[in-house]
Each structure stands twice: as structure tokens, then as C-alpha cells.
From TrEMBL:
The chain crosses the membrane at residues 20-40, 182-202, 222-241, 291-313. The lineage of its organism: Eukaryota, Metazoa, Ecdysozoa, Arthropoda, Hexapoda. The gene is LOC113520423. Belongs to the mitochondrial carrier (TC 2.A.29) family. It comes from Galleria mellonella. It comes from the Eukaryota. Keywords: Membrane, Mitochondrion, Mitochondrion inner membrane, Repeat, Transmembrane, Transmembrane helix, Transport. Solcar repeats lie at residues 17-107, 115-211, 221-310. It is a multi-pass membrane protein. The keyword Repeat applies. PROSITE patterns: SOLCAR. Pfam families: Mito_carr. The keyword Transmembrane helix applies. This is Mitochondrial glutamate carrier 1-like. It is found in: Mitochondrion inner membrane.
Length: 316
């Protein structure tokens, strides 16, 4: 991480902010992170989308049961359904998120080099707002791919068949039927989740990271501590925003299973979920999401910290 990643480290006088290497590092960090944790993210999506039947019946009992059933029905590669979309779009998404946060922190740092927590929160929230231009269509397409197996399994049990579609076919269909805005279904819920996540995550990561051991006196934090800080901050932020993630996931699911509800707005989704499933429904997939986000951001922050782009561009 750059010195702007620490809440207490003053920036050297006249230091210039280099955006390009941070964008490259963010892209690399996103690809590595999502490749590692994608199967967990798929399970999270399916757990959040399933609804409880009138007699309490569930398609998946828990996270492990979802893993087993998905693997049995779709094989190893079924666990990576929708990963191509995510890997392609995670590069600009993580690049924007991590680089924008560093940029906002740089410009919000006070003359004495300090960065109060409130300013850290503004920087994080602003970075989260910037990323939704990529996050919304990425999440929309990814969710359809991830949830296709669940819908197909439910249809098979009922003696029906559901034709699966590719991300490219779905994109063309949405553009044809709804225009560009079709790819931004659920953008308000996505913004609410991503902004609130970043408001919690980045200041918490910076604080934890600053508490860790340094590679040398006055130098950057040890990379292994940055990994732990990323895991801890990511896990905490994921739990805080899980209710909005459930709402976002359900609103962005275009193909519903038998008996599953449609939602016209964020409030409609919240009211119906609370009415029919109770408050615990907002934490469906919560543990799985924490398990996904912890290594994702731990890996992302570590890769980002290593400064691969700076080395490639001869900047260090």
C-alpha cells in the first residue's frame, strides 16, 4: 500500500500521486482474488436466493449441502459458473475501487499528513460510488449464471426443463429489450451496498494495517499483516452490509424459481422478505459471504500492496 493507505502516515512533501500503477495493481488483485474464492461466492448467491417453502422446506440446508448438491449436479466447473463474466469485469471494478480510494485519501489528507476517520469514510464511500458503473452489470450477469443451476435443479425436480443461457446471450437480450439501462437493474441496491461496504472497509483496513509490524522502521507494513488486515476488515464489512446484499441479489435475479417472489423496489423487497421470512432472511448466506470477502480482500490488498505494476513500469 502507498503511504496514503495509512491513517497516520504523512505523505512526503511534494509527493505525486501515480494513478496508472494503482489501476493496474487493482486489476491484478481482483483477478487473483476472485479466481480463488469464486465457488464460495456461487454458494452465497444460491443460498441468498432460495426461499423457504410453506412447510419450511429448503433446497439447500446449509453451505456444505449447497456445495455437495452443486458439485454432484454440475461437476467441478459448475462451481465456476459465471466466473468468466466476473473475471473480465473484476479487473476494472477492483482497479476503480482500490485506486479511487487511494486517490481520494491522497487528496483528503490534511497538510500535516493526518487523515481523520471521517475523511477516510468519505474517501471509502466515494470509491464505492465510483465502482457501481462496473459492479452493477457485472453482478447482474454473474448472479444469473450462478443461480442457473439452482433454477435448473428445481425445475428438474418438478419434471420441467429450463434452457440455460450464456452471459453474452443474456447481455444481448437485455440490450435488445431494455437498452443499456437493462444492465443496470438493481443499481440503487448495488450502490447502497457498495458505498456502505467501502465506508466500513477502507477506514477499518487502514487502521488495522497501521497497527501492524513494519518491514523496517518508518517503512510499509509487513505484507502478511496487510493480508490479515484485509481479511479482518473485509469480513466485518461483509457482515454489516449483508442485508443489503440479500436485497440486491434478489432484485437482480431475473429468472425466478417456482413460487419465488418478484420485487418492484428495494422497499418492496425488504417488506416482503420481512413479512414472509422474518429478519433472519437478511442474513442468509452471511457466513458464506464473510468467508468469500475475507480472503478476497486479503488477497487483493496483499497483491495491491506488492506493487507489481510499479516494478513492471520501473517506478520502484
Amino acid at each position: 500500500m502507498s503511504s496514503s493507505g495509512s491513517p497516520k502516515s504523512p505523505a512526503p512533501p511534494g509527493q505525486q500521486f501515480s494513478l496508472l500503477p494503482k489501476i493496474i495493481n487493482g486489476g491484478i488483485a481482483g483477478i487473483v482474488g476472485v479466481s480463488v474464492v469464486f465457488p464460495l461466492d456461487l454458494v452465497k448467491t444460491r443460498l441468498q436466493n432460495q426461499t423457504v417453502g410453506p412447510n419450511g422446506e429448503k433446497q439447500y440446508k446449509n453451505m456444505l449441502d449447497c456445495f455437495k448438491k452443486t458439485y454432484a449436479a454440475e461437476g467441478y466447473f459448475g462451481m465456476y459458473r459465471g466466473s468468466a463474466v466476473n473475471i473480465v469485469l473484476i479487473t476494472p471494478e477492483k482497479a476503480i475501487k482500490l485506486a479511487a480510494n487511494d486517490m481520494f485519501r491522497h487528496y483528503l489528507t490534511l497538510p500535516d499528513g493526518s487523515l481523520p476517520v471521517f475523511r477516510q469514510m468519505i474517501a471509502g464511500g466515494s470509491a464505492g460510488a465510483c465502482q457501481i458503473v462496473i459492479t452493477t452489470p457485472m453482478e447482474l450477469l454473474k448472479i444469473q449464471m450462478q443461480d442457473a443451476g439452482r433454477i435448473a435443479a428445481q425445475a428438474k425436480a418438478e419434471g420441467r426443463t429450463v434452457q440455460r443461457t450464456t452471459a453474452l446471450e443474456l447481455t444481448k437480450k437485455l440490450l435488445r429489450e431494455r437498452g443499456v439501462f437493462g444492465l443496470y437493474k438493481g443499481v440503487t441496491a448495488t450502490a447502497a451496498r457498495d458505498v456502505s461496504f467501502s465506508v466500513v472497509y477502507f477506514p477499518l483496513f487502514a487502521t488495522l494495517n497501521d497497527l501492524g509490524p513494519k518491514e523496517k522502521p518508518g517503512g510499509p507494513t509487513a505484507f502478511w499483516w496487510s493480508f490479515i488486515s484485509g481479511c479482518s476488515a473485509g469480513s466485518a464489512a461483509a457482515l454489516v452490509v449483508n442485508p443489503m446484499d440479500v436485497v440486491k441479489t434478489r432484485m437482480q435475479t431475473l429468472t425466478k424459481g417456482t413460487g419465488e417472489r418478484q420485487y418492484s423496489s428495494i422497499m418492496d423487497c425488504i417488506v416482503k422478505t420481512m413479512k414472509y421470512e422474518g429478519p433472519t432472511a437478511f442474513f442468509k448466506g452471511g457466513m458464506c459471504r464473510m468467508i468469500v470477502i475475507a480472503p478476497l480482500f486479503g488477497i487483493a490488498q496483499t497483491v495491491y500492496y506488492l506493487g507489481i505494476a510499479e516494478a513492471l513500469l520501473g517506478l520502484k
